[in-house]
Amino acid sequence: MASTLRSLGVAVLSSGFNPRSLRHLKKLRRYFSDRKAFVAKGGRVDVDYPILTDFESNAGSGSGQYFHQDLLVAQFVHDAKPARHLDIGSRIDGFVAHVATFRPIEVIDIRPMRPSVHPNIRYAVLDLIEGDVAAFGQADSVSCLHAIEHFGLGRYGDPLDPDGHKHGFANIARLVAPGGRLYISFPVGRKTEVYFNAHRCFAARDIFDWGEAIADFTLERFDWVDEQGELRTNGTPEDAAEYRYVLGIYTLRRDG
Question: How wide is the angle at C-alpha 196 spanned by C-alphas 193 and 198, nearest 5°?
Fold first, then answer.
């Protein structure tokens, strides 16, 4: 009995239960009521493992930075039908998975990953700050979504570099063929801030001061996800500049 109560206690606490909250006490009461009714109907309970946070939850989320950026840029790639798409560090179970449903995609990341993820995904490990990208050639479509703000902060084992985002961008720019597109996103707001070692938030027009590499690109489109997690399309960087922390999604075309 003591062991059972101890296991139940651990499960309850791990479910997010706060014994000081009346709201959670009501949910625990419902759990025991449902359990009793389930057993009365002939059900068998082998392990008590209460989940108290899903009684009133939604089916899912149709908002947020990753949700919108991954779908939006995947749609851009689908519609553009590039000969080759190369990705830098974007979310595998989001954007990369979306693109892999309809075409091959090559992914470069500093973090290792098993090679047999999906037949449409080719994976390579490289440090984009200091690594040599020449072996990858150039692609007419390149993406780097919600990644470059981490470059140089050491969070993912990358070398510490206060200008890691600039050095990384220079290497990413080398991967874009003349006339090709670069889809890049990162947190933007009123000013540049470093949240060490998590990420940076950039002023919305900072990217246009990231060294010589940016001079080869023209801003073709700007979209952004606001503080409520809603997508705003066909705007300008200035639209996002008045906020503290939102997501800017830049579609850049390489001149030439």
Answer: 95
